[in-house]
């Protein structure tokens, strides 16, 4: 059984905020694009054992599914990403050299230096930093962040010419990770490796929540912790149905139909 404290960030409407370069430590995981040969299209980087994240894959392309490009010599993205967020590899990015950039090689969209680039994380991250440029004009490039459902979190344009550093974070808590401590001392963070499930109690009309600890071992969430868990729930559209659900570790765990919760709460 899961007892003890439930630790989680509170949920709210997603909001992207800008961070300064000093928000990131020198030990932060870095991609320089020198790790793969010049000419590599849609590069993929796999990281294992990152603190607080575990295994993460970072992939690049020229668009997300649901988007297209427009323009000739300079191409821009048109349309909104589909749900769930995923890459459109047919619109590609590629590693190339850039004499104007002191950290060459760089990643470019198509056409070279004048096409869009998108970046996809296999699981939500708390923050990301990148260097953009070389920019020839102020306000000529827009960077937009999206959640796992393809919803825009916010956009920023370049404010200088040359190379500009961008740091972004989701200030809403949509990157929340709900952590449980079992009565035997195991600490697990709900997510892909430790999913949550909710079982109806026919005899009482209630719910029994379980979290996978390891292998086939599940822990039953104690009722007081269950009440705290529900406080982090929200209404989410899942396959066309409005569900009351909770997010953790980039996953969404349905608890019950939102309409049923309203009836029970009436």
Strand order of the largest sheet: 1-14-15
Distance between the termini: 30 Å
Give the tally of structural domains. 2
Largest sheet: 3 strands, antiparallel
Rg over C-alpha atoms, rounded to the nearest angstrom = 21 Å
Compute the average pLDDT. 84
What global shape is seen?
A: elongated
Tell me what portion of residues adopts beta-strand conformation.
35-45%
- Bin the helical content: under 10%
Number of strands: 21
Structural class call reads mainly beta
Q: How many helix segments?
A: 2
**SSE pattern:** EEEEEEEEEEEEEEEEEEHEEEH
Low-confidence stretches: 1-14
Topology readout:
Elements: E1 2-7, E2 16-19, E3 44-50, E4 54-61, E5 68-70, E6 76-78, E7 93-96, E8 106-109, E9 118-121, E10 127-135, E11 142-146, E12 152-157, E13 162-170, E14 179-182, E15 187-189, E16 196-201, E17 206-214, E18 217-220, H1 223-230, E19 233-238, E20 241-248, E21 251-257, H2 258-265
Antiparallel strand pairs: 1-14, 2-13, 3-4, 4-9, 5-6, 7-8, 10-13, 11-12, 14-15, 16-17, 17-18, 19-20, 20-21
